[in-house]
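Let's practice the habit of predicting before peeking. Look at the sequence and jot down your guess about where helices and strands might fall. Then scroll down.
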Amino acid sequence: MNAPALLATRLLLALTTARTRDERGDVPGWVLVTVMTAGLVGALWKLAGPQLNSMLTSALDSVHG
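Done guessing? Here is the structure:
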């Protein structure tokens, strides 16, 4: 194998490995965002659930008739 082809192969391998490592490192961030969002929704639902339910019911009743 000549030198330019060897260099290109090594460069491609290095870029592919670095990209895989960067994408793998981002997964915990997305998991944290998802868990925090679910926690916030759950907390808001627990605090304001009855009020939101009554608001939705009255809005649907006014539209329905």
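How did you do? Residues 3-64 form the longest helix (62 residues).
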